[in-house]
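Annual report, structural modelling task.

Input specification for the S-adenosylmethionine complex:
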Amino acid sequence: MSAKNENESKNKRTKLERRAALERLLRRGTTDHYIDTALYDFEYAERTEDVRWYRKLAREHFDGGAHIVELGAGTGRITCPLAKDGHTIEAVDLMPKMLERLYDRAEGQDWAERITLHEADMRALPLEDASVDMAISPFNALMHLYTWGDLLACFREVYRVLVPSGVFAFDVQLPDVEWLTWDPNERHAVTPFEHPETGESLIYSTNHHYDHATQICHINLYYDEPPPKGRKFRPPPKPKRLVRLAHRQIYPEEIRALTGIAGFELERHEGDFRGRALTGASESQTVVCRKPA
Ligand SMILES: C[S@@+](CC[C@H](N)C(=O)[O-])C[C@H]1O[C@@H](n2cnc3c(N)ncnc32)[C@H](O)[C@@H]1O
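The model returned the following structure:
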């Protein structure tokens, strides 16, 4: 093999290895955070504004009960209140553990029969064409679709399963370039807590690394043992537990472009759950679009 060919083949190998490493990271970034479901519910117990927003939307658009598909339903934080309100929900999620927790949360309730669980990918919905009134994707679930092609595939699936005039609502973070470019070696949000199930004392901390080329933010959530009494917490060289979380940043113009290309009419694109305008200071993007009549 000539030196040129050898170099080309080495470059190809390096590229393939890099691709494989990214895929491994993304696999963990889509699953790690959704294994300890008791901890998931504990960490987001105070997140309630979004629950109110989705309930109000469903009520406003479909008084008397809608047929709704929820993409990335998780442990049912939003699913269960919607079912209580009289809606019928197709709860779609990739993670069996999250769906098991949803099942446990609903079991025995008189509204439980209005929920159907689907272990499925939001890019290939297990539903008939024009079979649901509304689709929702709460709490950054769409940020687990790592390319614009994945997002478009999902939006096209939503379009397919919605009835004419059906509503599609979701929320994702507004990319915060200042936060994304924080020093990836520093730890933030250092917080002691007790595990909700085991009672174990732990220290939570986090950092992240943003890849500008892929728009993916690789977040690390660390769970460590607390330091001896009176001593300051210092991150150990090897964490007790490391949870990877990967979030693709979705910029406002991508939302406008991809919802449009998928055929939706964009009705609202706001900066929070209170109807405030989307500005540089917004944390979220709340989006409501509609399939034309
Ligand atoms: C941040 S959680 C949101 C869960 C729930 N909607 C809530 O508001 O608490 C994101 C969920 O999306 C699910 N998910 C990620 N990628 C998915 C995909 N491609 N298809 C279906 N579900 C997916 C995860 O398993 C996880 O349960």
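The longest strand covers residues 162-173.
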